[in-house]
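Worked Example 4.2. Read the sequence first, then its structure tokens.
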Amino acid sequence: MSERKKWFKFVIESCVIVVSILLAFGIDAWWDERKESHREYEYLVSLKDDVARTIRDNERVIADQSAEHSRILAIAEAIRAGTELPADFRTTFPTVVLPAESMDTYRDLVASGGTTLISSPEVRSAMAHLLQRVEYNDLAERWALEVATSARMIVLEAEPGSMSREHLADIWSVYIDLGERLIDGKARLDKAAQDAMYVLDSALGE
């Protein structure tokens, strides 16, 4: 075999080896990308489930708190007008419902540094905003719970008929303010959750 043919054979074999290596790397990269894409899809589905639970729970709480706020307003009006108060007025006060934990998937992603698995910047931004709103509501509602409990104890511990209408009006003005803040906080949470659901649907192609 001539020297030229030997070199030609060597070049061909070298090219085959290089192409094989590149093909193997390409297949590995493709397979890794597929696995990452599948993991991202699973996370997106889990995030959507969490957000859907947040929306359902929040809507129920808004309805309950709105109905209760209407009763508080009616009692406040009776106090102001000097008319007879309902028999249960002493036990009527803003119910503070601490947020249900429906952010497990996103919290796990944040804790593990896995938010980079989510390729959509819109999803990352919407979920971060939703978590921020959940945590803000949590702090605000714990504060409201302390205030409402303190005010309620003043009413419950007082002898029936011993509190003046002016004193009761002051307490119910606190109740009204708390109720409005709680409902507003839940409405803002609902908006953040609806926004997150929209971008999740878009990311999932739904």
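Now turn to a second chain, presented in exactly the same format:
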Amino acid sequence: MTFGIVDGNGNTVSVAGTLTAAYNGGNIDSGTSCMAYTTVVFTYTESQNYEFVRWDVTGTQGTAATDAANKKVHTYTIGSLNGGTEVNVVVQKKPQITFTQSANGTITVTGTIEGEANQTVESGKWVDRGTDITVTLEPDMGYEVSSPNSGWTAAANSDNYTYTISNMQENQDITPTWSKIPACVVTYSVVDKNGGEAGGLNGTL
């Protein structure tokens, strides 16, 4: 009986969660010999950066299930082992979000993390594949977002912009550019058309 965690090409992945095999009242290592017609239960628990794709089984077939209360936990049960069997869980890496906060604006990202929607996503973290992320760009006072995309949404009464990246499949690096708003100099004076003292005697400006 052999088992492991692999990617879509069959390569072993060592940092993609945990895979255990329960047999005869305890856990066994890959390569352990098991008696025929016994039950073996495999349990895979996802890590933060990898997610479950499918079970890949050669030999005795079984039944797959996902924990209803914790979608990160997946099981495969072979009810009656019959001959040499290899059980692999196939995983794929989740999309990673990266960005760098600068001195002239703030980047905020929200998305779905481990099945929980509307979570704040820190730079370097992962979101669930196939979900959407929302990016908010908030320039500091005196700055604005350079060349905003026509599909972005401008916030009312501010220089902020928000946009959505749908169906996340690949890593996403968010790199906005902030531009300094040109300063305007306003000059003014009061002229007394009656020729009185400069500024006149009546009114304020």
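Notes for the reader: The CA atoms of residues 14 and 97 lie 22 Å apart. The chain has a mean pLDDT of 90.
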